């Protein structure tokens, strides 16, 4: 049996259509346009490509968007001043500082400097705390994308055994918190596995919903998965380049094996990836509404 594909590209398109309507509505009601600035420090090719995709999405939705690229040797002070400038700019609703930052810059300090009402990544401790108590203004983008995929694919999360592989601040921890909350698209029993977990397959084999954000190419094998489980693969691992220079991506799940066992699975690329950017756009629209309501 081959699993049904959860197509993030299609779900993402549908949400962006909804957002377009919302942007139109905001323009008519408040006379404003959601504004997003992306700050990219340095010239890392992967970061450049992510930021380009974010800018394109913002542009396509009719946002006011600013791409602010800075050299890798910008000082921490200069970067903090720049953030302060955008904190005060009424045209800007969302500030995104692309990570990772060069080593001489303290990432935590930078994330703390962003006005929490413009923190569309939801990385500021204020927003992390609000998420933890079940009162988020913004959901972190990749976990929000995963939850949307589950809900829009009709996956029952209430009472489900969810196993998350990975404990990062960006994906593992927040998706675990979100799915254990009370409410629709949640109410799950969540287990989080990580590099020190004693017997990871004991846990993965029990999962009704298996979410893998391990950062290791094809880490999860087909026989780690319970037959009929829903598999969400958050991995984005570049394993090579095509003759014309395009990145060849693989997930954290051995897809060909997993699709024979799972009932539903996200492909890589075209699964979780496109959802992350769409959720960033959703957060920017939300920030605009918060600022103008
Ligand atoms: N680098 C990798 N993923 C992300 C993300 O979601 N947001 C930001 N700002 N940087 C990233």
TrEMBL record:
Gene3D superfamilies: Leucine Dehydrogenase, chain A, domain 1 (3.40.50.10860), NAD(P)-binding Rossmann-like Domain (3.40.50.720)
Reactions listed under catalytic activity: (6R)-5,10-methylene-5,6,7,8-tetrahydrofolate + NADP(+) = (6R)-5,10-methenyltetrahydrofolate + NADPH; (6R)-5,10-methenyltetrahydrofolate + H2O = (6R)-10-formyltetrahydrofolate + H(+)
Domain of life: Bacteria
Gene Ontology MF annotations: methenyltetrahydrofolate cyclohydrolase activity; methylenetetrahydrofolate dehydrogenase (NADP+) activity
GO biological process, any: tetrahydrofolate interconversion
EC assignment: 1.5.1.5, 3.5.4.9
Annotated metabolic or biological route of this protein: One-carbon metabolism; tetrahydrofolate interconversion
One family name in Pfam for this protein: THF_DHG_CYH
Residue stretches making up the Tetrahydrofolate dehydrogenase/cyclohydrolase NAD(P)-binding domain: 140-290
InterPro entries in UniProt: Aminoacid_DH-like_N_sf (IPR046346), NAD(P)-bd_dom_sf (IPR036291), THF_DH/CycHdrlase (IPR000672), THF_DH/CycHdrlase_cat_dom (IPR020630), THF_DH/CycHdrlase_CS (IPR020867), THF_DH/CycHdrlase_NAD-bd_dom (IPR020631)
Keywords: Amino-acid biosynthesis, Histidine biosynthesis, Hydrolase, Methionine biosynthesis, Multifunctional enzyme, NADP, One-carbon metabolism, Oxidoreductase, Purine biosynthesis
Annotated binding of NADP(+), by residue: 166-168, 236
Gene Ontology cellular component list: cytosol
Residue ranges annotated for the Tetrahydrofolate dehydrogenase/cyclohydrolase catalytic domain, each copy included: 6-121
PROSITE patterns: THF_DHG_CYH_1, THF_DHG_CYH_2
Signal peptide interval: none
Function: Catalyzes the oxidation of 5,10-methylenetetrahydrofolate to 5,10-methenyltetrahydrofolate and then the hydrolysis of 5,10-methenyltetrahydrofolate to 10-formyltetrahydrofolate.
Protein family (similarity comment): Belongs to the tetrahydrofolate dehydrogenase/cyclohydrolase family.
Assembly mode: Homodimer.
Protein name: Bifunctional protein FolD
